[in-house]
Amino acid sequence: MRLLADENIPNLVVELLCDHGHDVLWVGKEPPGISDREVLSLAIIEKRTLITFDTDFGELVFRLKVNAPFGVILFRLPPNSPSTIAQIIIRTLETQLDWTGLFSVVDENQIRTRSLPNL
Question: pTM for the whole thing?
Answer without folding.
Answer: 0.93
